[in-house]
Design brief:
The complex is a heterotrimer of chains A (160), B (293) and C (793). Chain B is of the alpha+beta class and 293 residues long. Chain B has eleven helices and 14 strands. In chain B, helix 10 packs across helix 11. Classes of the chains: A alpha+beta (160), B alpha+beta (293), C alpha+beta (793). Chains in contact: A-B, A-C, B-C.
């Protein structure tokens, strides 16, 4: 079987991109290798670790469990885009202040997931935060500091 | 690992998808939410010739009420089911089960139809729709047919859907106000596939249990009605004595599969524990103390 | 004028929480990991791995693969062996009579574990390399599989490596006192056998190399996710016959390591060989599936333990017999017997008993080679000892705190030698115990536990005291043992022309905050602001040769080297300022980046002026003074084999006695890592380490079937701890600076991992106490293990 190519067109981090790629390319390989957005990481490529979490049409998804071709016409936002927009600058600052990351490999996925949680703008317990974040693996921190950072930002935002 | 080579087509209509399925035979695979298919591709466990992407088929999306039936399009994503007011009101069993389904990023993409059609024995949705007596609507090039859920699940990843058919809709009778439902599962970690689980739906009036359907999943090769257990339960008061009878009956209903997460003996034990807990909860809920869920 | 120790100055950077600059870029997705680097014309390697645990390779057919799209090279293990200077032999001379089979980077004529690399394919893309790998045909003849350690050591077992005679890699016994007499005289003798499931590191960023060879200069550059760039340089150079000084290793951001990335792996050597052969950059990323069958595993142990206790709770004797199941080879260059050796030495280490006997037997298996993973051996030894101590408390009617109070070494009793023969000093078991007692609110917690029990809710409280070996010396194993692994480390501290300070480190940073800690030490020692200091690590062309980061040594060893080098630079700055200011250097000090009169804060000359003059205006200095402005110091332990640390964990859990599920409610740690440089970073090392230990205690297990097939080599099946199940962790410290160094820092990186499994097992057993005569003695403590202990299945 020969390599089937497909031309995809989508918006990534606010910019329109058109590329011709092998159809088997998943979304994270696409943004990493074709577009140079290396902030999204590959930790397992089978949808468990969450390091590849990106936002597609407003929702956080596993980038390794979606073909780039499936994002045709979609709006894709990676950690680079969400950083540039300033949407989670408070959360990023708190992650640094609280040292809610060590090696940093899980961090973009953690932040993309936490962004969705914080967008709910509701009161939440530490247990609620742990539950929501439970699809993102971190080997370094033990999670405590991550929960602290998210909790603190949520409290600040609710106080507004 | 990277996915093997395959061809890819975005289906533009159900008919188009069916045509592609007919053309490619065994080599065609439907790509819905992809949350189970994509891992198998990325591990090269699956090497289809043609991926038929049905994500553009808007007709297959959405949740609506048709009289006493909740109709859920097969392509409806878990997150929509989880957030649906219709589901919350009419299908509290499913509403109760949804938070157990994987994690947010998976729920944002995975579909109820994909989960049901895949028939993973540890998945929540197949058990729920079996407890509620749903009807599955599948469509082939010859047209649609309806399959009662009791006839749908055949075994490990096997269903009554033919390879050239598409699951298009799940029709679930609204839960009746005088009945209660309970969903419980045990997984090693939150969001993991279950090791043992139960979906129960029926009536508890006064102390008497009637019409209770106990559905077990994760321990068996498919979601399984505990027929003997249900029989030992219905018409009885929920008591220690009944519990013992139900547990004994359950041993003839289930043939737990051992796997990495537990032996058959452990799974049988857990299903008994869950049965007891589910019924304890059902009684509380029926008395109104435990809320509607 | 006197010298004020930098850590004693007001507002010193030593002892202060400061953010990490690496964290700031990581949160923006601007981390730079090896896979984020692509060189022009980069090719990608993939491996065909053995599907069998043990098989002879009869024939390899590669023609179809070579003809496949994008393929540039197909190389067998035999072909690779020809490019190597020789096989690796994973022994150290300090491990007396240890046996190891020579090992080439890929299987040559025999595959010895499920997942061993057999053929490498290099292609334009990773996908193409994998496509071509499917076209390689290998004929195997299956050989008998040795996969259970208990059977491997029997005389009738098949032998994996016939040249070794049997499957026993190493045996060792040690001890002191008269153990038999003490057992005979003890009021109670308790015996138990413990099982520990093999697990693996699962760093989120997998292993990776990007190798680039320049045939013109014959320079080899390897970007790799490594903790020990210099060691990698040495091993790769010597294995591939490239002069060591022509090899440069760059370890950019490293996405987790935990000991995994102190090792050398054959597939990485193979990819590097391909880069040399093709004269093109070659990248190899271990995908998650191959990580499970090629990353080192660890901790497959069965330990029999026996203790003698008097009625008053005094521990009078202890004995352990460990059986370790390692892999098919001894992992080069550190060996696979280190874990067993650690277990022998540290078990019952907190206690002052003087009768101790320990034996280890290490068996080769047709499984992934094991080696050193965070807290090497400690989780096993600590779990065993602490379980036995809790059991002894139960038998003698003592509270678990009280039996530890009675038996731990007194804080004023050092130096002393423990039962295994190790020298101990500067420890604080008693202080840690009392601090934990307060932190846990222990008496109220016990009362709460009793209240819950009345309601049929089974909660348990666990304790686990520990010692932890950190910062090994060059006399113990490395260097002396024959391995070219540096136990010394070095730092160069340089004053730049504009007054900035570069701190070039032999130790490395995988997210612990090593760079920041070293910047803090250097800034404090020199007397300048953190803004003026920049650490460089992870590049062998830019840093002095050192061992890197392993065994909780970065701050303890590298920190002292940095401290001394920075003090040297400070002395020179003062000397030069003295000349320029015509003032006795003794009368000067450096504060906030300015040379000042001692006791004053008024700037007399800023470091930027010193830098400018020292680099450009040398004519202002006397002819007989040539400024150096770049100071390198090395540091190694001298008298002790390790810097030992100590501490104690507490855990509060709830066990669902019907299902066996465990809910971890709260975890506490009080430990003593000596002088703390950055309190937040120290705390987070402890927290992260705890959860890693809890993973092994509760979930993680590399499960092999009888045919030697790894059954759960995916992240869906190999269960790691995630946020929901893990508790909040409260951390406290007692600071007893080590007398080994001036800085006084000990290691902190493994103290969470070492004792977490033991405290978890104790808490679970406390929860089910009285319900059953059974006790949980197996890890991971899966629900089934609990249910069996409860007699429910």
């Amino acid at each position: 079987m020969s390599e089937e190519m497909v031309t995809v067109n989508m918006t990534v981090n606010g910019e329109n991109v058109t590329k011709t790629i092998p159809v088997r390319t998943h979304l994270v390989d696409f943004v990493r290798t074709e577009l140079g957005f290396t902030g999204s990481h590959l930790g397992c490529e089978h949808g468990v670790c969450g390091a590849c979490s990106v936002r597609v049409d407003g929702d956080v998804v596993r980038g390794c469990l979606m073909l780039a071709a499936q994002a045709e016409g979609s709006e894709v936002v990676t950690i680079e885009g969400i950083s540039d927009s300033g949407e989670i600058s408070d959360l990023q600052d708190k992650f640094v202040e609280r040292n809610a990351l060590q090696c940093g490999f899980c961090t973009p996925g953690m932040l993309m997931t936490a962004a969705e949680l914080l967008a709910q703008k509701t009161e939440m317990s530490r247990e609620d935060i742990r539950e929501f974040m439970s699809g993102n693996y971190c080997r370094c921190t033990g999670y405590h500091a991550i929960v602290d950072a998210i909790e603190s930002v949520n409290n600040s935002r609710l106080k507004g | 690992m990277k996915a093997p080579k395959f061809s890819y087509t975005r289906a533009t209509s159900v008919e188009h998808a069916l045509e592609l399925l007919d053309t490619h035979g065994d080599g065609g695979r439907i790509l819905a939410g992809g949350q189970s298919l994509m891992p198998t591709l990325n591990m090269r466990l699956s090497q289809p010739d043609m991926l038929i992407d049905i994500n553009g088929l808007d007709d297959l999306k959405g949740i609506s009420l048709d009289g006493d039936t909740v109709c859920i399009g097969a392509l409806t994503r878990h997150v929509e089911v989880m957030n649906s007011d219709i589901v919350a009101e009419h299908l509290p069993l499913i509403a109760e089960a949804m938070p157990y389904v994987a994690h947010v990023a998976i729920r944002n993409r995975g579909t109820i139809g994909g989960s049901v059609a895949l028939a993973d024995p540890a998945a929540e949705m197949p058990a729920c729709i079996l407890a509620l007596g749903a009807t599955l609507v599948v469509q082939g090039s010859a047209g649609k047919r309806e399959i009662p859920v009791e006839e749908f699940f055949h075994g490990l990843f096997e269903t009554a859907r033919a390879d050239n058919e598409l699951l298009v809709e799940i029709r679930i009778p609204s839960q009746k106000g005088d009945k209660v439902s309970v969903f419980l599962e045990l997984a090693r970690r939150h969001g993991d596939f279950a090791i043992a689980g139960i979906a129960a739906y029926g009536s508890v009036s006064g102390d008497t249990v009637t019409d209770m359907r106990l559905v077990y999943f994760a321990s068996e090769d498919k979601p399984t009605i505990g027929a003997n257990a249900s029989a030992a339960l219905n018409g009885k008061n929920w008591s220690d004595e009944t519990k013992e009878a139900v547990n004994t009956a359950l041993e003839s209903d289930l043939e737990p599969m051992a796997n990495l997460h537990g032996s058959a003996a452990m799974k049988m034990h857990l299903q008994k524990v869950l049965t007891g807990r589910a019924m304890d909860t059902a009684v509380v809920r029926a008395s109104g103390a435990g809320g509607a869920a | 004028m006197g010298f004020i120790h930098p850590y004693e100055r007001p507002n010193s950077y030593i002892g202060r929480t400061l953010p990490r600059s690496r964290a700031m870029r990581a949160v923006a997705g601007r981390g730079r990991y090896t896979d984020d680097i692509t060189l022009p014309r980069t090719l990608h390697a993939a491996f065909v791995r053995s599907p069998y645990a043990h098989a002879k390779i009869l024939n390899i057919e590669t023609a179809a693969a070579k003809a496949a799209d994008g393929v540039k090279l197909v190389m067998t293990g035999a072909e690779l062996a020809e490019m190597c200077t020789g096989p690796w032999v994973g022994t150290l001379t300090v491990f007396d009579k240890m046996k190891a089979e020579p090992q080439y980077p890929m299987a040559v004529d025999r595959a010895c574990w499920h997942g061993e690399a057999v053929v490498m394919v290099v292609a334009e893309t990773r996908a193409q390399a994998e496509d071509a790998g499917e076209l390689v045909t290998i004929d195997y003849e299956e050989l008998p599989v040795v996969i259970r350690k208990e059977k491997a050591i029997l005389p009738d077992s098949p032998v994996i490596h016939p040249n070794l005679g049997d499957n026993i890699a190493w045996e060792k016994t040690l001890g002191t006192g008269d153990v038999d007499k003490a057992f005979a005289e003890a009021d109670h003798v308790l015996e138990e056998t413990f099982e520990f499931g093999r697990h693996t590191a699962v760093s989120l960023e997998p292993r990776i190399v990007l190798a680039d060879y320049d045939p013109g200069t014959e320079h080899l550059t390897i970007h790799t996710s490594s903790q020990c760039p210099h060691m990698i340089e040495t091993v790769f150079a010597r294995t591939l016959g490239v002069p060591e000084h022509k090899v440069r290793i760059i370890a950019p951001d490293v996405g987790g390591s935990f000991g995994l990335k102190i090792h050398t792996f054959g597939d990485e050597v193979a990819a590097t060989a391909a880069a040399i052969k093709l004269a093109r950059p070659v990248k190899f990323v271990a995908d998650r599936l191959e990580s499970f069958v090629s990353d080192i595993h660890a901790r497959e142990n069965r330990v029999h333990a026996k203790i003698g206790v008097m009625n008053d709770g005094t521990l009078v004797a202890a004995e352990i017999d460990d059986l370790s199941g390692v892999g098919a080879y001894s992992q080069f260059p550190r060996t696979s017997v280190f874990e067993a050796n650690q277990i022998l030495h540290i078990t019952f280490g907190p206690y002052k008993h003087k009768n101790y006997r320990a034996k280890a037997t290490v068996a080769y298996l047709n499984a992934v080679p094991t080696s050193q993973y965070r807290a090497v051996g400690h989780p096993i030894g600590i779990t065993v000892a602490e379980h036995m101590m809790d059991w002894a408390a139960d038998v003698t009617g003592l509270d678990p705190f009280d039996i530890r109070r009675k038996n731990v070494m007194e804080d004023d009793s050092y130096p002393q030698i423990i039962g295994s023969g190790l020298p101990m000093k500067d420890l604080s078991h008693q202080a840690c115990l009392e601090k934990l007692f307060g932190l846990m609110n222990y008496e109220e917690l016990r009362a709460e536990q009793a209240e819950f029990r009345k309601k049929g809710i089974y909660r348990g409280i666990g304790l686990a005291s520990f010692i932890k070996g950190t910062a090994p010396s060059p006399v113990g194993f490395y260097g002396a043992g024959g391995a070219r692994i540096a136990a010394q480390d070095a730092t160069t501290v340089k004053l730049e022309p504009a007054g900035g300070v570069i701190v070039a480190l032999g130790v490395t940073d995988q997210g612990q905050g090593v760079d920041t800690v070293m910047e803090q030490i250097a800034a404090a020692a020199i007397g300048c602001s953190m803004d003026m200091v920049r650490a460089i690590s992870g590049d062998t062309d830019a840093t002095p040769y050192g061992g890197g980061t392993y065994a909780s040594r970065a701050t303890a060893i590298g920190g002292e080297a940095t401290y001394q080098a920075a003090l040297d630079l400070r002395r020179e700055i003062l000397h030069m300022a003295g000349i320029l200011l015509q003032t006795d250097a003794e009368e000067l000090d450096i504060v906030d980046g300015n040379v000042v009169d001692f006791g004053s804060t008024e700037a007399r000359i800023p470091l930027s002026e010193i830098g400018r003059i020292g680099h450009f205006q040398l004519g202002e200095l006397p002819n007989d003074y040539q400024p150096i402005l770049s100071h390198t110091r090395r540091y190694r332990l001298q008298d002790s084999p390790y810097i030992y640390t100590n501490g104690i964990h507490g855990a509060y859990v709830e066990v669902d006695v019907d299902t066996g599920w465990i809910k971890h409610l709260k975890h506490w740690v009080v430990e003593d890592c000596g002088r703390i440089i950055n309190p937040q970073l120290a705390d987070e090392q402890i927290r992260g380490g705890c959860v890693q230990g809890l993973g092994g205690a509760l979930y993680e297990h590399c499960i092999y079937d009888d045919a030697g097939q790894l059954q759960n080599g995916t992240m869906a099946d190999y269960v790691t701890p995630m946020a929901y199940e893990m508790p909040d962790i409260e951390v406290g410290h007692v600071e007893t600076p080590t007398s080994e160094s001036e800085l006084g820092a000990k290691g902190a990186g493994e103290s969470g991992t070492g004792a977490a499994p033991g405290v978890m097992m104790n808490a679970v057993n406390d929860a089910i106490k009285g319900l059953t005569s059974g006790r949980v003695t197996e890890q991971p403590i899966a629900p089934e293990v609990v249910l069996k202990a409860l007699g429910k299945i």
